[in-house]
Amino acid sequence: MNDTQLSIVFLSGACRSWTTSISIDERSYLLERLFVAEPALPGVIVCEGDKRLGLLSRRVFLAALSQAYGREIFLSRPLRELLIPVRLQTLLLSEHVSLSTACRAALAREEVTRFEPLLVNVGGQTCIVQLADLLLAQAAALERTIALKNEAVERSTKVAADLQAALAEQHQLASELLDARNLAVHDALHDPLTGLLNRKGLFAEVASRTKSGLDQSGRACLLFLDLDRFKLINDSLGHHAGNQLLAEVARRLSAIALDCGRANCIAARHSGDEFVLLCAACDGEAEVMALAQAVHRSLTAPYMLNGQSYTVGASIGAVACLGGYQDFELAMRDADIAMYIAKRSKDRHIVLFEPSMHKVVERRVALEAELRQAVAQGEFRLHYQPIQDAGTDSVFAYEALLRWQRPDGLMTAKHFIDLVEETGLTNEVGLWVMRTACRWLKSIHADGHAGATKVSLNVSAAQIMNINLPEQMARICQEEDLDPAHCIIEVTEQSAMVDPERAALVLQELKRLGFSLALDDFGTGHSSLSWLHQYPFDVLKIDRSLTAEVGQPGGSSKMAVGILYLSQLLGLRVVAEGIEGQTQMDALHRLGFRLMQGYHIGRPQPDWPAPSIMTAPAPSLSGGAGQTLSA
Predict the structure, then answer these.
(1) Is the per-residue pLDDT at 152 higher than 80?
(2) Which of 77, 264, 317, 433 has the most CB atoms less than 10 A away?
(3) 19: number of CA atoms within 13 Å, CB side?
(4) Which whole-number Å values give the CA distances from 156 to 143, 152, 161, 167, in the listed order?
(5) Mean pLDDT for the stretch of residues 160-176
């Protein structure tokens, strides 16, 4: 290989190059902005004054970002402090080093990958390039070399020995050129993390199988898969663990594709935590559902991440027959819509596409746009529902419940809270809820009502994974001049199970700062008594499913009484939820329950005239007490 020619190709701009640099004394948040603003940027040159210290790749930065200390702390510190323990896994070349020799040696030593950026000095100029681009530049140089060799062969026909040597070298160069081209094509069509086909590769594979791009026999089916709450895993455990999870998902999908036969089944990574399985031989919806159920069982089996076992959910959308589609893009769209419906369903993880689903998605898109506008225009409201102390007929606390005041009426949180999480507004809305509730509670205290009354606030799974949540909540209490002892922070067991260790740290810090803690909806999901002594809870809220039969003819109260007894032994206060009638309330009181909540005691409303229950309770209504931010 002629390295001089390769340098000319490289410096002429035949391959992409970047020259972005940053001072080692800059704050980390500036580097994050660079990577967000330039999605194609593989790295930056780190400088100290006029001296170039080396190259910081996007992958190294993300690895540093996933370290144990908090994200906000990380982003506020200078690169000089944070990059000392990080080994810069890049290759520094100079104009005196053979590019082909250095690149191959680095790949052989596994110091770099084809997808890692390199800092190259050629002819006094410094550029940042992807190694894959260098290989393409090498291929272009080889092409030019072949052309030059052809001319040399024509000029040296007089010497047979020289001709034979030139031809042999030409064949070798042609072989290297073919290898480089094949490698570049493979990299363009495959996902570097999982090794599966990427979206471009999937469409290319489908197009290569039939002229129309689809199986016209009607037996082909398409599964569109998405991991549930992958972002929480990725943010809480770090990008390295997230990449581990994605690689293992790809391995499991590849195993399923292999069982189905490679000629009949294609696995691909669409984007992020979305995957696609295209099978060319599925007879009817029953067989498609059986395949989807097998995929779901495989993907929801436990994963070992950072030495611990974690379980994630999966939502699957399916198109049972591709024979009616003339465009594979439309089939992908419909499978994505079905997956969208499955992801928002509480009882279905697998959904077969139906044409009527288009309207559901259109409504969802419109609602998301309205939600963003609602945040900007302050359309959220809080309603408060009392928790009564039956022993004194006073209010123990008010639970703050989120509502959206729309032009067409009031919407409860269960209809939009998942959109709040998807749009990344969880923390913003959650802190607004706390500040608003604190101001309301302070106002009723100022009106001369009982100062011992508390306000109960729900936090979602995304919030409990935020290591800075305790500090943010304490700052709000300080700014609003309200003692944290007046605030009860409610979490559900399912929310804390995303990352039990991090949840424990957040809860312990909230407890240290003076907040009371409540375990909500106990009796649903996994409900383990071990949570009651492993975490610093003060209050246990028993779900309505365990209190509904109390006081009813033939109804059982054993489970509710047992939980009450054990909770009292652990020093916990117990709230019975779902109180819908006086008979039920009296029966629970006789069993030893004092704190109760439900529509019979009081429905959620914007304000209460006094921190005591009205003499005439609201009429009994079916349904729960409403949805909160963690709904």
Answers:
(1) no
(2) 317
(3) 6
(4) 20, 6, 9, 11
(5) 76
